[in-house]
Design a protein that fits this description.
Chain lengths: 140, 143
């Protein structure tokens, strides 16, 4: 029996929240996460919908994207030297619930979250307050 | 490469537009400089379930219609993958596994989509995540 091994050493949830209704074809960068800048990223997952409660961030009510909206943007990951490592990957690929529970493994890449961004190809349903969550898995 | 140990090193989204649709039609991949002379070890195809529109703004083919498409991949001038059903490459339809390849040096401009039936709406696009590395694989690990 094959088992997909993915070891969680450390993880951090990064929240990209739209402050206003977003625009199609514009880059929206992930927030600065200095603690991740020097880490080797081993996996990346985008939870959405019912996976994350709207009240998970104390004092705020967040609106995670829906299962339909997960197909409406692409994600690009950049390293500290501004090399594009992952270009326009479909976020659906990075969801676990749609991929038999798998967490998509990353090859120990030193990504810089604040240089990574999403681009919306379709803005339907995206409003101020909508959030896209990124779960970065890493090794110290 | 072991599908269970698949890791993203580099990836690039590639789209192929279908301006008109007919059984037997072929649609070649465009030249992409970033994918010249790289070693492709994984390819993942998507339908509108995974991606509603491409970065160029084209609607992605409906999930119910992707079964009408096949994929031909060429190394140099040899078709190393011939008429693979597009469905085979959609990870979420295959247990979440990204289809792995043996570090192919794909000649994109000689690779193409071939339709076996109508169904996909004209002007829709098909799209792929190409997973690759720039350096030659460790020959001890290849395969």
């Amino acid at each position: 029996m094959r088992v997909d091994y993915f070891h969680v050493y450390n993880s951090r949830l990064v929240v990209l929240q739209f402050l206003s209704t977003p625009v199609r074809n514009q880059k929206y960068y992930l927030p600065n996460e200095p603690d991740l800048d020097t880490k080797r990223i081993t996996g990346l997952r985008i939870p959405y919908g019912n996976e994350i409660p709207s009240t998970f961030k104390a004092g705020e009510t967040l609106t995670p994207i829906s299962g339909t909206q997960i197909a409406q943007f692409v994600f690009t990951a950049v390293d500290a030297n501004t090399n594009t490592i992952i270009s326009n990957i479909t976020p659906y690929t990075l969801t676990s619930v749609n991929n038999n529970g798998k967490i998509r493994k990353i090859s120990n890449l030193q990504l810089t979250p604040s240089k990574c961004y999403i681009v919306l190809n379709d803005i339907t349903g995206f409003v101020a307050g909508t959030c896209i969550l990124f779960e970065f898995f890493y090794k110290d | 490469m072991n599908q269970d140990n698949f890791k993203i090193r580099r990836s690039f989204l590639v789209e192929v537009n279908l301006p008109t649709v007919a059984a037997g039609n072929t649609y070649y991949f465009a030249d992409i400089p970033q994918l010249r002379n790289v070693y492709t070890y994984g390819i993942e195809a998507v339908s509108d379930t995974q991606l509603s529109k491409t970065p160029l703004g084209f609607t992605v083919a409906a999930a119910a219609q992707i079964k009408t498409a096949t994929v031909v991949l060429t190394e140099m001038d040899t078709n190393v993958v011939y008429q693979m059903p597009y469905y085979t490459l959609v990870a979420s339809l295959n247990g979440g596994y990204i289809r792995t390849f043996n570090f192919l040096r794909i000649n994109l401009v000689k690779s193409y989509i071939q339709l076996v039936d109508t169904g996909i709406t004209a002007t829709n696009s098909l799209a792929f995540n190409f997973y690759y590395q720039n350096q030659a694989p460790d020959t001890k690990k290849k395969g």
